[in-house]
Design brief:
Length: 107
């Protein structure tokens, strides 16, 4: 994603971490000896904004990946438990069927 794309959104992140329209973003006061900054600063802000967006996307990918891995682990555990239950039920049913067969033979 290029800086032009981020700039086309028209938003920047303020000091509180909120996304605000570029025109409404407060400008920090100039330090002594600091001149008004021009396009170079705007390009720097765009790069900073792009870096912030990319960092947020990476954090989101990590968060989602971690949650997905946890979900997959839980799903595997459930699958194992259900597989074990199926084996136990089948074994008990076979034993019951055999026992009923023995009783029928005795009658």
């Amino acid at each position: 994603m290029g800086s032009e794309v981020v700039a086309s959104f028209g938003y920047v992140q303020n000091d509180d971490g909120e996304w605000v329209p570029k025109g409404n973003a407060p400008h920090p006061p100039l330090q002594q000896g600091q001149d008004q900054q021009g396009e170079d600063d705007e390009q720097g802000n765009s790069s900073t904004t792009l870096n912030n967006v990319m960092n947020c996307i990476e954090q989101l990918q990590t968060f989602v990946g971690t949650r997905f891995d946890a979900f997959e682990t839980r799903f595997d555990a459930f699958e194992t438990r259900f597989g074990n239950m199926d084996m136990v039920i089948t074994t008990r049913f076979d034993a019951l069927q055999s026992h009923v067969g023995n009783i029928e033979e005795q009658l």
